[in-house]
Amino acid sequence: MRQVFIAGVGLTRFDTYDGQQGRPRKEFYDLGSEAILKALKEAGMEWKEIQAAFCGSVYCGTASGHQTIEKIGMTGIPIVNVENACSSGSSAFRLAYQSIAAEIYDVAIAVGFETMPRGLIRSTAWPEWQRKMGFNVQPASYAMAAVRYMEETGATEEDFARVTVKNRRNGALNPFARFQKPVTIEEVLASRMVAKPLRLLHACPLADGGAAVILCCKEKLKSKEKMVTVAASVLTSGTYGHVYGGGSVKIHTPDTVEISVKQAWEMSGYGPEDMDVVQAYDTMAPGELWDLERMGFCAKGEAPRLLREGYFDLNGKLPVNTDGGLMSRGHPLGATALAQIIEIYRQIRGEAGPRQVEGAKIGLAHAMGAGPNSSVTILKR
Amino acid sequence: MEEIKIKPVKEGLWVINGRGDGKPHLIGSRCNVCGEIFFPRKDINICSYCQSTDLVDIQLSANGKVYSYTVVMQRPPDYYKGEVPYAIGFVELPEGVRVETLFTGCNFDEIKVGMEVEMVIEKLWEDENGDEIITYKFKPKI
Protein backbone atom coordinates (compact mmCIF):
# COMPACT_ATOMS: atom_id res chain seq x y z
CA MET A 1 0.00 0.00 0.00
CA ARG A 2 1.57 3.27 -1.08
CA GLN A 3 1.60 6.60 0.73
CA VAL A 4 -1.31 8.93 0.08
CA PHE A 5 -1.01 12.71 0.02
CA ILE A 6 -3.44 15.60 0.26
CA ALA A 7 -3.39 17.68 -2.92
CA GLY A 8 -5.79 20.40 -1.87
CA VAL A 9 -8.73 21.25 0.37
CA GLY A 10 -11.81 23.45 0.08
CA LEU A 11 -14.18 24.72 2.73
CA THR A 12 -17.26 26.95 2.61
CA ARG A 13 -18.25 29.21 5.46
CA PHE A 14 -20.65 27.21 7.63
CA ASP A 15 -23.88 29.09 8.30
CA THR A 16 -27.67 28.74 7.97
CA TYR A 17 -28.26 29.30 4.28
CA ASP A 18 -32.04 29.30 4.53
CA GLY A 19 -32.76 32.55 2.69
CA GLN A 20 -34.36 34.08 5.80
CA GLN A 21 -33.54 37.39 7.48
CA GLY A 22 -31.26 38.54 4.71
CA ARG A 23 -29.21 35.34 4.64
CA PRO A 24 -28.51 33.85 1.23
CA ARG A 25 -30.29 30.66 0.23
CA LYS A 26 -27.91 27.87 -0.75
CA GLU A 27 -28.67 24.24 -1.42
CA PHE A 28 -26.41 21.34 -0.60
CA TYR A 29 -25.17 21.15 -4.18
CA ASP A 30 -24.19 24.84 -4.08
CA LEU A 31 -22.15 24.29 -0.93
CA GLY A 32 -20.65 21.00 -2.10
CA SER A 33 -19.65 22.35 -5.50
CA GLU A 34 -18.20 25.51 -3.93
CA ALA A 35 -15.97 23.34 -1.75
CA ILE A 36 -14.93 21.16 -4.70
CA LEU A 37 -13.94 24.20 -6.81
CA LYS A 38 -11.87 25.62 -3.95
CA ALA A 39 -10.10 22.30 -3.49
CA LEU A 40 -9.34 22.00 -7.21
CA LYS A 41 -7.94 25.52 -7.26
CA GLU A 42 -5.67 24.86 -4.31
CA ALA A 43 -4.56 21.54 -5.77
CA GLY A 44 -3.83 23.17 -9.13
CA MET A 45 -5.99 20.46 -10.73
CA GLU A 46 -8.80 20.28 -13.25
CA TRP A 47 -12.01 18.34 -12.51
CA LYS A 48 -11.07 15.96 -15.34
CA GLU A 49 -8.12 14.71 -13.29
CA ILE A 50 -10.37 13.37 -10.54
CA GLN A 51 -10.82 9.62 -11.01
CA ALA A 52 -13.36 8.85 -8.25
CA ALA A 53 -15.61 10.80 -5.90
CA PHE A 54 -16.84 9.81 -2.47
CA CYS A 55 -19.61 12.10 -1.21
CA GLY A 56 -20.70 12.25 2.41
CA SER A 57 -24.14 13.51 3.44
CA VAL A 58 -27.01 12.35 5.62
CA TYR A 59 -30.17 14.33 4.85
CA CYS A 60 -29.69 15.27 1.21
CA GLY A 61 -31.48 12.32 -0.37
CA THR A 62 -30.81 10.12 -3.33
CA ALA A 63 -27.91 10.91 -5.68
CA SER A 64 -26.84 13.91 -3.62
CA GLY A 65 -23.20 13.53 -4.67
CA HIS A 66 -24.21 13.22 -8.31
CA GLN A 67 -26.35 16.37 -8.13
CA THR A 68 -23.43 18.24 -6.60
CA ILE A 69 -20.86 17.04 -9.12
CA GLU A 70 -23.28 17.72 -11.99
CA LYS A 71 -22.75 21.43 -11.27
CA ILE A 72 -19.08 21.04 -12.21
CA GLY A 73 -18.78 18.25 -14.73
CA MET A 74 -20.01 14.74 -15.45
CA THR A 75 -17.07 12.62 -16.53
CA GLY A 76 -18.45 9.15 -15.86
CA ILE A 77 -16.17 8.49 -12.91
CA PRO A 78 -17.49 6.39 -10.04
CA ILE A 79 -19.48 8.53 -7.60
CA VAL A 80 -20.39 6.86 -4.32
CA ASN A 81 -22.67 8.50 -1.77
CA VAL A 82 -21.61 7.79 1.78
CA GLU A 83 -23.94 8.00 4.78
CA ASN A 84 -22.36 7.30 8.15
CA ALA A 85 -24.18 9.91 10.22
CA CYS A 86 -21.69 12.43 11.62
CA SER A 87 -18.74 10.36 10.33
CA SER A 88 -19.92 10.57 6.71
CA GLY A 89 -17.16 13.00 5.72
CA SER A 90 -14.34 10.99 7.27
CA SER A 91 -15.81 7.75 5.92
CA ALA A 92 -15.75 9.29 2.44
CA PHE A 93 -12.16 10.40 3.10
CA ARG A 94 -11.23 6.86 4.11
CA LEU A 95 -12.68 5.36 0.94
CA ALA A 96 -10.73 7.86 -1.17
CA TYR A 97 -7.58 7.18 0.86
CA GLN A 98 -7.86 3.39 0.57
CA SER A 99 -8.53 3.45 -3.16
CA ILE A 100 -5.33 5.44 -3.77
CA ALA A 101 -3.25 3.44 -1.28
CA ALA A 102 -4.36 0.28 -3.07
CA GLU A 103 -3.36 1.85 -6.41
CA ILE A 104 -6.86 1.63 -7.83
CA TYR A 105 -6.85 5.39 -8.51
CA ASP A 106 -4.14 8.04 -8.50
CA VAL A 107 -6.43 10.98 -7.67
CA ALA A 108 -9.75 10.92 -5.79
CA ILE A 109 -11.91 13.45 -4.00
CA ALA A 110 -13.81 13.23 -0.73
CA VAL A 111 -16.55 15.83 -0.44
CA GLY A 112 -19.07 16.37 2.34
CA PHE A 113 -22.06 18.70 2.40
CA GLU A 114 -25.33 19.22 4.17
CA THR A 115 -28.30 21.53 4.44
CA MET A 116 -29.72 20.66 7.81
CA PRO A 117 -33.38 20.23 8.73
CA ARG A 118 -34.31 22.83 11.37
CA GLY A 119 -34.89 21.92 15.02
CA LEU A 120 -33.73 18.82 16.86
CA ILE A 121 -32.01 16.28 14.67
CA ARG A 122 -34.64 13.80 13.49
CA SER A 123 -33.07 10.38 13.59
CA THR A 124 -34.34 7.15 12.11
CA ALA A 125 -31.68 5.28 14.07
CA TRP A 126 -34.35 4.31 16.62
CA PRO A 127 -37.17 1.77 16.09
CA GLU A 128 -40.67 3.25 16.01
CA TRP A 129 -41.78 2.18 19.49
CA GLN A 130 -38.72 3.83 21.02
CA ARG A 131 -39.50 7.02 19.14
CA LYS A 132 -43.01 6.88 20.57
CA MET A 133 -41.46 6.57 24.04
CA GLY A 134 -39.51 9.77 23.39
CA PHE A 135 -36.07 8.14 23.35
CA ASN A 136 -35.01 9.66 20.04
CA VAL A 137 -33.78 12.98 21.32
CA GLN A 138 -30.09 13.46 20.67
CA PRO A 139 -29.27 15.61 23.67
CA ALA A 140 -30.83 12.88 25.82
CA SER A 141 -28.23 10.21 24.96
CA TYR A 142 -25.39 12.60 25.70
CA ALA A 143 -27.18 13.90 28.80
CA MET A 144 -27.52 10.42 30.26
CA ALA A 145 -23.86 9.72 29.51
CA ALA A 146 -22.97 13.07 31.10
CA VAL A 147 -24.81 12.09 34.30
CA ARG A 148 -22.70 8.90 34.49
CA TYR A 149 -19.51 10.84 33.77
CA MET A 150 -20.32 13.35 36.51
CA GLU A 151 -21.07 10.50 38.91
CA GLU A 152 -17.81 8.70 38.10
CA THR A 153 -15.41 11.65 37.86
CA GLY A 154 -16.92 14.54 39.79
CA ALA A 155 -17.10 16.67 36.62
CA THR A 156 -19.60 19.55 36.76
CA GLU A 157 -21.86 21.49 34.41
CA GLU A 158 -19.30 24.26 34.68
CA ASP A 159 -16.56 21.94 33.39
CA PHE A 160 -18.77 21.26 30.38
CA ALA A 161 -19.39 25.00 29.95
CA ARG A 162 -15.64 25.51 29.84
CA VAL A 163 -15.45 23.37 26.68
CA THR A 164 -17.93 25.67 24.95
CA VAL A 165 -16.05 28.75 26.16
CA LYS A 166 -12.68 27.45 24.88
CA ASN A 167 -14.06 26.45 21.51
CA ARG A 168 -16.07 29.62 20.96
CA ARG A 169 -12.97 31.63 21.82
CA ASN A 170 -11.03 29.75 19.14
CA GLY A 171 -13.92 30.04 16.71
CA ALA A 172 -13.69 33.82 16.90
CA LEU A 173 -10.44 33.39 14.93
CA ASN A 174 -12.02 31.24 12.21
CA PRO A 175 -13.64 33.11 9.31
CA PHE A 176 -15.36 29.88 8.16
CA ALA A 177 -17.19 29.28 11.44
CA ARG A 178 -20.90 30.02 11.85
CA PHE A 179 -20.31 31.66 15.24
CA GLN A 180 -17.29 33.93 15.55
CA LYS A 181 -18.04 35.48 18.93
CA PRO A 182 -16.83 34.17 22.28
CA VAL A 183 -19.24 33.24 25.06
CA THR A 184 -18.74 33.26 28.83
CA ILE A 185 -19.31 30.47 31.35
CA GLU A 186 -22.18 32.53 32.79
CA GLU A 187 -23.86 32.75 29.40
CA VAL A 188 -23.56 29.00 28.88
CA LEU A 189 -24.99 28.21 32.31
CA ALA A 190 -27.82 30.70 31.83
CA SER A 191 -28.88 29.23 28.48
CA ARG A 192 -32.02 27.12 28.51
CA MET A 193 -31.94 23.50 29.64
CA VAL A 194 -32.48 21.07 26.75
CA ALA A 195 -31.95 17.69 28.45
CA LYS A 196 -30.75 17.96 32.03
CA PRO A 197 -27.91 18.64 32.73
CA LEU A 198 -27.14 19.85 29.22
CA ARG A 199 -28.13 23.34 28.13
CA LEU A 200 -28.48 24.94 24.73
CA LEU A 201 -24.93 26.31 24.79
CA HIS A 202 -23.52 22.92 25.77
CA ALA A 203 -24.66 21.77 22.33
CA CYS A 204 -23.21 22.64 18.96
CA PRO A 205 -25.40 24.76 16.68
CA LEU A 206 -26.96 23.74 13.38
CA ALA A 207 -25.24 24.81 10.21
CA ASP A 208 -25.16 24.15 6.48
CA GLY A 209 -21.87 23.80 4.67
CA GLY A 210 -19.53 21.99 2.34
CA ALA A 211 -15.98 20.67 2.57
CA ALA A 212 -13.75 18.82 0.12
CA VAL A 213 -10.36 17.12 0.21
CA ILE A 214 -8.47 15.90 -2.85
CA LEU A 215 -6.12 12.99 -2.23
CA CYS A 216 -3.50 11.61 -4.58
CA CYS A 217 -0.34 9.58 -4.90
CA LYS A 218 2.98 11.43 -4.64
CA GLU A 219 3.56 11.55 -8.39
CA LYS A 220 0.33 13.50 -8.97
CA LEU A 221 1.07 16.27 -6.46
CA LYS A 222 1.54 19.56 -8.33
CA SER A 223 3.54 21.03 -5.48
CA LYS A 224 6.14 19.16 -3.45
CA GLU A 225 6.20 21.86 -0.76
CA LYS A 226 4.72 21.26 2.70
CA MET A 227 3.55 17.79 1.65
CA VAL A 228 0.97 16.19 3.94
CA THR A 229 0.48 12.43 4.09
CA VAL A 230 -2.24 10.33 5.68
CA ALA A 231 -0.64 8.46 8.56
CA ALA A 232 -3.88 6.75 9.60
CA SER A 233 -7.49 6.58 8.48
CA VAL A 234 -9.60 4.34 10.70
CA LEU A 235 -13.29 3.56 11.01
CA THR A 236 -14.78 1.41 13.76
CA SER A 237 -18.49 0.77 13.48
CA GLY A 238 -21.16 -1.17 15.27
CA THR A 239 -19.07 -2.45 18.14
CA TYR A 240 -21.07 -4.91 20.22
CA GLY A 241 -23.17 -3.59 23.05
CA HIS A 242 -23.14 0.00 21.84
CA VAL A 243 -26.02 -0.12 19.39
CA TYR A 244 -27.57 3.27 18.87
CA GLY A 245 -31.25 3.19 19.71
CA GLY A 246 -31.10 -0.57 19.98
CA GLY A 247 -32.02 -2.77 22.87
CA SER A 248 -30.19 -3.59 26.04
CA VAL A 249 -27.64 -6.30 26.57
CA LYS A 250 -25.65 -7.64 29.46
CA ILE A 251 -22.23 -8.21 27.97
CA HIS A 252 -20.16 -5.03 27.64
CA THR A 253 -17.15 -4.82 25.36
CA PRO A 254 -14.35 -2.28 24.92
CA ASP A 255 -15.43 1.19 23.99
CA THR A 256 -15.77 2.06 20.30
CA VAL A 257 -13.47 5.07 20.60
CA GLU A 258 -10.76 3.09 22.36
CA ILE A 259 -10.85 0.42 19.66
CA SER A 260 -10.63 2.93 16.81
CA VAL A 261 -7.85 5.01 18.29
CA LYS A 262 -5.82 1.87 19.08
CA GLN A 263 -6.06 0.94 15.40
CA ALA A 264 -4.93 4.45 14.48
CA TRP A 265 -1.82 4.19 16.70
CA GLU A 266 -1.00 0.80 15.18
CA MET A 267 -1.51 2.02 11.64
CA SER A 268 0.51 5.22 12.07
CA GLY A 269 3.18 4.04 14.49
CA TYR A 270 2.40 7.07 16.66
CA GLY A 271 0.91 7.50 20.11
CA PRO A 272 -1.08 10.26 21.83
CA GLU A 273 2.17 11.90 22.97
CA ASP A 274 3.15 12.48 19.32
CA MET A 275 0.12 14.59 18.44
CA ASP A 276 0.71 18.34 18.16
CA VAL A 277 -2.92 19.29 17.60
CA VAL A 278 -6.26 17.49 17.93
CA GLN A 279 -9.77 17.86 16.56
CA ALA A 280 -12.16 16.33 19.09
CA TYR A 281 -15.81 15.67 18.48
CA ASP A 282 -17.62 18.38 20.45
CA THR A 283 -21.21 17.90 19.27
CA MET A 284 -22.00 18.19 23.00
CA ALA A 285 -19.47 19.75 25.36
CA PRO A 286 -18.94 16.76 27.68
CA GLY A 287 -18.15 14.53 24.69
CA GLU A 288 -14.90 16.42 24.07
CA LEU A 289 -13.76 15.62 27.60
CA TRP A 290 -14.50 11.92 27.71
CA ASP A 291 -13.30 11.35 24.15
CA LEU A 292 -9.92 12.97 24.93
CA GLU A 293 -9.66 10.56 27.84
CA ARG A 294 -10.72 7.55 25.79
CA MET A 295 -8.17 8.46 23.13
CA GLY A 296 -5.46 8.33 25.77
CA PHE A 297 -4.54 12.01 25.83
CA CYS A 298 -5.02 11.94 29.60
CA ALA A 299 -6.26 9.58 32.29
CA LYS A 300 -9.96 8.98 32.91
CA GLY A 301 -11.50 11.86 34.82
CA GLU A 302 -8.50 14.14 34.25
CA ALA A 303 -9.74 16.13 31.26
CA PRO A 304 -11.86 18.65 33.22
CA ARG A 305 -8.93 19.59 35.45
CA LEU A 306 -6.53 19.91 32.49
CA LEU A 307 -9.08 22.04 30.65
CA ARG A 308 -9.36 24.32 33.69
CA GLU A 309 -5.56 24.66 33.69
CA GLY A 310 -5.45 25.69 30.04
CA TYR A 311 -3.81 22.47 28.82
CA PHE A 312 -6.12 22.23 25.79
CA ASP A 313 -6.11 25.96 24.97
CA LEU A 314 -4.73 27.35 21.73
CA ASN A 315 -1.48 28.20 23.52
CA GLY A 316 -1.65 25.16 25.78
CA LYS A 317 0.29 21.92 25.81
CA LEU A 318 -2.18 20.11 23.50
CA PRO A 319 -4.46 22.47 21.58
CA VAL A 320 -7.86 20.93 20.91
CA ASN A 321 -10.38 22.26 18.38
CA THR A 322 -8.24 25.18 17.31
CA ASP A 323 -10.82 26.31 14.73
CA GLY A 324 -13.60 26.40 17.28
CA GLY A 325 -14.85 22.85 16.81
CA LEU A 326 -18.45 21.94 16.09
CA MET A 327 -19.40 24.49 18.77
CA SER A 328 -18.32 27.37 16.57
CA ARG A 329 -18.43 25.92 13.07
CA GLY A 330 -21.86 24.38 13.53
CA HIS A 331 -22.65 20.84 12.40
CA PRO A 332 -23.56 20.11 8.76
CA LEU A 333 -23.45 16.35 9.23
CA GLY A 334 -21.91 15.38 5.89
CA ALA A 335 -19.22 18.06 6.01
CA THR A 336 -18.17 18.17 9.65
CA ALA A 337 -15.60 15.38 9.72
CA LEU A 338 -13.91 16.79 6.59
CA ALA A 339 -13.79 20.25 8.16
CA GLN A 340 -11.97 18.71 11.12
CA ILE A 341 -9.44 17.08 8.78
CA ILE A 342 -9.00 20.36 6.89
CA GLU A 343 -8.11 22.24 10.10
CA ILE A 344 -5.45 19.65 10.92
CA TYR A 345 -4.12 20.05 7.37
CA ARG A 346 -3.94 23.86 7.77
CA GLN A 347 -2.26 23.58 11.17
CA ILE A 348 0.51 21.21 10.08
CA ARG A 349 1.20 23.29 6.98
CA GLY A 350 1.55 26.43 9.08
CA GLU A 351 -1.47 28.03 7.38
CA ALA A 352 -3.75 28.53 10.36
CA GLY A 353 -3.06 32.27 10.72
CA PRO A 354 -4.07 33.62 14.14
CA ARG A 355 -5.00 30.06 15.21
CA GLN A 356 -1.55 28.68 14.37
CA VAL A 357 -0.07 26.19 16.81
CA GLU A 358 3.67 26.73 16.66
CA GLY A 359 5.63 23.89 15.14
CA ALA A 360 2.63 21.63 14.54
CA LYS A 361 3.63 18.70 12.34
CA ILE A 362 1.28 15.84 13.25
CA GLY A 363 -2.41 16.08 14.03
CA LEU A 364 -5.41 13.86 14.75
CA ALA A 365 -9.08 14.33 13.90
CA HIS A 366 -11.76 12.26 15.61
CA ALA A 367 -15.45 12.09 14.74
CA MET A 368 -18.27 9.97 16.15
CA GLY A 369 -21.59 9.20 14.53
CA ALA A 370 -24.84 7.36 15.16
CA GLY A 371 -24.32 3.69 14.46
CA PRO A 372 -22.12 3.85 16.37
CA ASN A 373 -19.16 5.03 14.34
CA SER A 374 -15.80 6.25 15.53
CA SER A 375 -13.43 7.54 12.89
CA VAL A 376 -9.84 8.64 13.44
CA THR A 377 -7.63 10.38 10.89
CA ILE A 378 -3.97 11.24 11.49
CA LEU A 379 -2.13 13.58 9.11
CA LYS A 380 1.56 14.34 9.13
CA ARG A 381 3.97 16.73 7.42
CA MET B 1 -70.38 5.20 21.52
CA GLU B 2 -67.11 3.61 20.51
CA GLU B 3 -65.18 1.72 23.16
CA ILE B 4 -61.80 3.18 24.08
CA LYS B 5 -59.14 0.62 23.23
CA ILE B 6 -56.02 0.17 25.27
CA LYS B 7 -52.98 -0.67 23.14
CA PRO B 8 -49.38 -1.29 24.15
CA VAL B 9 -46.77 0.91 22.50
CA LYS B 10 -45.43 -2.35 21.07
CA GLU B 11 -46.70 -5.91 21.44
CA GLY B 12 -44.67 -8.37 23.41
CA LEU B 13 -42.53 -6.03 25.50
CA TRP B 14 -43.94 -7.20 28.84
CA VAL B 15 -46.23 -9.69 30.52
CA ILE B 16 -48.37 -9.14 33.62
CA ASN B 17 -48.22 -11.62 36.47
CA GLY B 18 -46.07 -14.00 34.44
CA ARG B 19 -44.20 -14.93 37.62
CA GLY B 20 -47.41 -15.17 39.65
CA ASP B 21 -46.43 -12.12 41.69
CA GLY B 22 -49.03 -9.77 40.23
CA LYS B 23 -46.28 -7.59 38.76
CA PRO B 24 -45.45 -6.73 35.16
CA HIS B 25 -42.18 -8.15 33.85
CA LEU B 26 -40.28 -7.23 30.70
CA ILE B 27 -39.76 -10.09 28.29
CA GLY B 28 -36.19 -10.66 27.19
CA SER B 29 -34.20 -13.41 25.50
CA ARG B 30 -31.37 -15.40 27.00
CA CYS B 31 -28.71 -17.21 25.03
CA ASN B 32 -28.10 -20.63 26.51
CA VAL B 33 -24.64 -20.81 24.99
CA CYS B 34 -22.97 -17.55 26.09
CA GLY B 35 -25.45 -16.32 28.72
CA GLU B 36 -26.15 -13.00 27.00
CA ILE B 37 -29.49 -11.40 27.77
CA PHE B 38 -31.39 -9.16 25.34
CA PHE B 39 -34.22 -6.71 25.81
CA PRO B 40 -36.50 -6.52 23.89
CA ARG B 41 -36.63 -10.23 23.12
CA LYS B 42 -34.87 -11.18 19.92
CA ASP B 43 -37.31 -11.47 17.02
CA ILE B 44 -34.62 -13.15 14.93
CA ASN B 45 -33.45 -16.38 16.52
CA ILE B 46 -29.72 -15.53 16.60
CA CYS B 47 -27.63 -14.43 19.55
CA SER B 48 -26.05 -11.16 18.44
CA TYR B 49 -23.02 -11.88 20.59
CA CYS B 50 -22.10 -15.47 19.73
CA GLN B 51 -24.49 -16.19 16.83
CA SER B 52 -25.94 -19.31 18.46
CA THR B 53 -29.60 -20.14 17.78
CA ASP B 54 -30.25 -21.54 21.26
CA LEU B 55 -32.30 -18.64 22.68
CA VAL B 56 -35.14 -18.74 25.20
CA ASP B 57 -37.64 -16.12 26.35
CA ILE B 58 -37.16 -14.97 29.91
CA GLN B 59 -38.95 -12.56 32.24
CA LEU B 60 -36.73 -9.83 33.63
CA SER B 61 -36.94 -8.53 37.21
CA ALA B 62 -39.51 -5.86 37.94
CA ASN B 63 -37.11 -3.74 39.98
CA GLY B 64 -33.67 -2.28 39.62
CA LYS B 65 -31.51 0.79 40.19
CA VAL B 66 -31.22 3.99 38.22
CA TYR B 67 -28.02 3.83 36.14
CA SER B 68 -28.45 7.22 34.47
CA TYR B 69 -31.23 9.65 33.59
CA THR B 70 -32.11 12.96 32.02
CA VAL B 71 -35.06 15.33 31.98
CA VAL B 72 -35.98 16.22 28.40
CA MET B 73 -37.19 19.81 28.09
CA GLN B 74 -37.88 19.89 24.37
CA ARG B 75 -40.44 17.91 22.39
CA PRO B 76 -38.86 15.29 20.07
CA PRO B 77 -39.28 16.06 16.36
CA ASP B 78 -41.75 13.23 15.74
CA TYR B 79 -43.86 10.41 17.21
CA TYR B 80 -43.83 11.34 20.90
CA LYS B 81 -47.18 12.79 21.99
CA GLY B 82 -46.69 12.74 25.74
CA GLU B 83 -46.02 15.50 28.21
CA VAL B 84 -42.92 17.66 28.12
CA PRO B 85 -40.75 17.82 30.16
CA TYR B 86 -40.37 14.10 30.67
CA ALA B 87 -37.70 11.95 32.28
CA ILE B 88 -35.94 9.01 30.65
CA GLY B 89 -32.95 6.97 31.66
CA PHE B 90 -31.43 3.56 32.08
CA VAL B 91 -32.37 1.16 34.87
CA GLU B 92 -29.92 -1.60 35.73
CA LEU B 93 -31.76 -4.82 36.48
CA PRO B 94 -30.29 -7.57 38.69
CA GLU B 95 -29.79 -9.66 35.54
CA GLY B 96 -27.11 -7.17 34.46
CA VAL B 97 -29.13 -5.60 31.64
CA ARG B 98 -29.59 -1.81 31.53
CA VAL B 99 -33.03 -1.09 30.17
CA GLU B 100 -33.96 2.30 28.72
CA THR B 101 -37.20 3.61 30.20
CA LEU B 102 -39.45 6.53 31.03
CA PHE B 103 -39.64 7.56 34.69
CA THR B 104 -42.89 8.32 36.46
CA GLY B 105 -44.45 8.80 39.87
CA CYS B 106 -41.99 11.37 41.18
CA ASN B 107 -40.70 14.88 40.91
CA PHE B 108 -38.05 14.65 38.20
CA ASP B 109 -35.57 16.56 40.37
CA GLU B 110 -35.68 13.66 42.83
CA ILE B 111 -34.22 11.13 40.42
CA LYS B 112 -30.70 10.09 41.41
CA VAL B 113 -28.17 7.56 40.17
CA GLY B 114 -28.51 4.42 42.29
CA MET B 115 -32.11 5.10 43.28
CA GLU B 116 -34.21 1.93 43.63
CA VAL B 117 -37.07 1.79 41.18
CA GLU B 118 -39.81 -0.63 40.19
CA MET B 119 -41.69 -1.22 36.96
CA VAL B 120 -45.26 -0.15 36.30
CA ILE B 121 -47.53 -0.17 33.26
CA GLU B 122 -49.01 3.23 32.59
CA LYS B 123 -50.60 5.38 29.94
CA LEU B 124 -48.17 6.91 27.46
CA TRP B 125 -50.74 9.10 25.73
CA GLU B 126 -54.05 9.04 23.83
CA ASP B 127 -53.81 8.65 20.10
CA GLU B 128 -55.91 10.44 17.47
CA ASN B 129 -58.72 7.83 17.80
CA GLY B 130 -58.93 8.40 21.55
CA ASP B 131 -57.32 5.00 22.22
CA GLU B 132 -54.98 4.78 25.16
CA ILE B 133 -51.40 3.82 24.38
CA ILE B 134 -49.75 2.16 27.37
CA THR B 135 -46.12 1.36 28.10
CA TYR B 136 -43.70 0.28 30.80
CA LYS B 137 -42.15 2.90 33.05
CA PHE B 138 -40.14 2.82 36.25
CA LYS B 139 -41.00 4.69 39.44
CA PRO B 140 -39.23 5.12 42.76
CA LYS B 141 -39.65 2.12 45.05
CA ILE B 142 -41.26 3.24 48.26
What descriptive keywords fit this protein?
heterodimer; A: 381 residues; four-stranded mixed β-sheet; 12 helices; globular; B: 142 residues; mainly beta; five-stranded mixed β-barrel; four-stranded antiparallel β-sheet; 10 strands
Number of H/I helices of chain A: 12
- Number of beta strands of chain B: 10
Amino- and carboxy-terminal Cα gap of chain B? 40 Å
CATH topology of chain A: Peroxisomal Thiolase, Chain A, domain 1
> How are the strands ordered across the major sheet of chain B?
6-7-8-10-9
Helix content of chain B: under 10%
Structural class of chain A, by secondary structure, is: alpha/beta
In the sheet with the most strands of chain A, the strands line up as 1-7-4-2-3
**Which geometry of chain B do the CA atoms define?**
globular
Q: What is the overall pLDDT average of chain B?
A: 92
Which protein chains make the most extensive interface, counting residues with beta carbons within 8 Å of the other chain's beta carbons?
Answer: A-B, 35 and 43 residues
The number of strands of chain A is 12
> What's the CATH architecture name of chain A?
3-Layer(aba) Sandwich
Secondary-structure class of chain B: mainly beta
Low-pLDDT segments, ≥5 res of chain A: none
